[in-house]
Write a sequence for this structure.
């Protein structure tokens, strides 16, 4: 029996199957996370298990080592890496006394029922910011991001009370 060359229709069908597999990611990673994503997700787990700043500092140092050793990041890795970094930032931010203090102030402004209360909390936030500036302490990028998120929530509360947002 002689085998004939694939027909034009058969070749087109084969190309469609290959294109569909590529579009679904088949053959590329088969749903397996890259080593980089796995490493950062492990650091996110470690960050969320931390109970003190010593642990948080170690995780931050380990994350920095990973970042320093990383070259080009694949496009497919961007979203999972950002998600892992977000978890790290949130978990480590909960341990930083500066972030904790700001979070408490954010909660206080949102608990206020009148403008006088809002102004009192606003003054406390201004003092917090001034103390931070004079202390010379630097916030990590992650801590700054957490504070920014808390600040966005607090801004809505200041606006409801008709109180200027502290700068």
């Amino acid at each position: 029996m002689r085998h004939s060359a694939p027909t034009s229709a058969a070749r087109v069908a084969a190309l469609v199957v290959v294109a569909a597999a590529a579009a679904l990611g088949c053959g590329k990673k088969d749903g397996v996370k890259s080593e980089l994503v796995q490493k950062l997700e492990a650091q996110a787990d470690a960050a969320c298990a931390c109970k003190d700043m010593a642990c948080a500092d170690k995780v931050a140092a380990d994350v920095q080592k990973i970042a320093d050793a990383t070259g080009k990041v694949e496009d497919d890795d961007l979203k999972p890496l950002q998600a892992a970094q977000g978890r790290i930032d949130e978990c480590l931010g909960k341990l930083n006394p500066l972030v904790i203090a700001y979070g408490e102030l954010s909660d206080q402004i949102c608990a206020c029922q009148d403008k006088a209360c809002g102004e009192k909390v606003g003054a406390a936030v201004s003092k917090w910011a001034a103390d931070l500036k004079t202390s010379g302490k630097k916030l990590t990028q992650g801590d700054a991001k957490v504070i920014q998120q808390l600040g966005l929530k607090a801004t809505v509360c200041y606006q409801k009370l008709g109180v200027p947002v502290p700068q």
